[in-house]
Amino acid sequence: MPDCTPALPEVPGVLTADQVRRTVAAIAAEQSADGALPWFRGGQLDAWDSVEAAMALDVGGEHERARAAYDWLAGRQRADGSWAAEYRDGAVVAPAVESNHAGYLAVGVWHSWLCTGDAGVVDRLWPTVRRALDLVATMQLATGAISWALRPDGTPDDTALLTGNASLFQALRAGIALADLVGAARPDWELAAEDLGRALRHQPAAFADRSRYSMDWYYPVLAGALTGPAAEARLSAGWDTFVVPGLGVRCVADRPWVTGAETCELALALAAAGRPADATEQLAAMQHLRAEDGSYWTGLVYADDARWPVERTTWTAAAVVLAADAIAGTGPAAALFADPAALELDRAAVTEVLR
Asked: 3-class DSSP state for residue 327?
């Protein structure tokens, strides 16, 4: 196993390695003794955001904490491969089955492998990932898009959400890479990813119209569904609508509200599009949300100069760490977000390691 003590990312003029360390520590401080990693201590927990926070812990070298967060999720996976939409203090608050929550563990486990080279973690979590992505594949609609949720009768809802589907495109690709790693080919996931990628690139009508949300603007680029000129065209088309110079990115086009996580996710999309300077500018723009302990406020209503909501979330802090890592290229998993072709490249590297 390679050395698991990483050099922390540093973005000159924006974040020092010590500041990143403090942000990772702020995330760790919200983790429960049983491994649960909620938005903040005593707050809600969902699988997607918990995985994002665990990835930031891995970037920061807190590998045992990241594994504990993944193990917490594995212990609460339901028989159909899903997680509840929301937990609080370990109890289910919202039982709905959402495809996006099911899929993202694959990205986290692949990220953990890249950070640590710990095949034991992959072996332990592979059955959990397999059940989750098998569920995702069954939720694919005739258009190639994936339903956002299951109805109470267990059938997929007809609605597909663009941001969630872009994230699932990344999740399926990560799952395919994990399948290669453990020697368990999943051609059904490959077909699902191909059909989903086609829908993301060529069938906008397959997705509900949520174009007022910035995530629907940049996420197809962040997740690698759009690359090259198509990615550039998409980023250019929404720039003036969503970017507030010096403050970050609006969460919603028609509200004077910038949010830290969306700004950092745009930075990840810009890094993926080969625009590191612009990514750095966005990461710098949201630093007004940083608190003294290294945590981050969720957002700012800039018309009123008021933080809102009044909470500092682990997933906002995690987005900062992941963006810094992608921009700096420091950690062994940095290319997962910075390079849209990284999954294919990493699969080739894994094949070489296994020879």
From this structure: helix
The mean of the pLDDT values for the chain is: 95
Residues 6+ apart with CB under 8 A from 268: 222, 279, 319, 322, 323, 326, 337, 338
- At residue 348, the pLDDT reads 56
Three-state secondary structure call for residue 94 = strand
| Beta-carbon contacts of residue 352 (< 8 Å; ≥ 6 apart) | none
137, 188 Cβ separation under 8 angstroms: yes
49: phi then psi, degrees, rounded to nearest 5: -70, -30
Main-chain phi, psi angles of 107, to 5 degrees = -65, -45
Picking from 8, 25, 62, 26, the residue whose alpha carbon sits closest to that of residue 297 is 26
Q: Note whether 100 and 48 are within 8 A (CB).
A: yes
Tally of CB atoms within 10 A around 345? 11
Average pLDDT value for residue range 165-185: 97
Q: Is 91 helix (H, G, I), strand (E, B) or coil?
A: strand
Environment class of 352 (CB within 10 Å of its CB; exposed 0-12, middle 13-18, buried 19+): exposed
Residues β-bridged to residue 15: 11
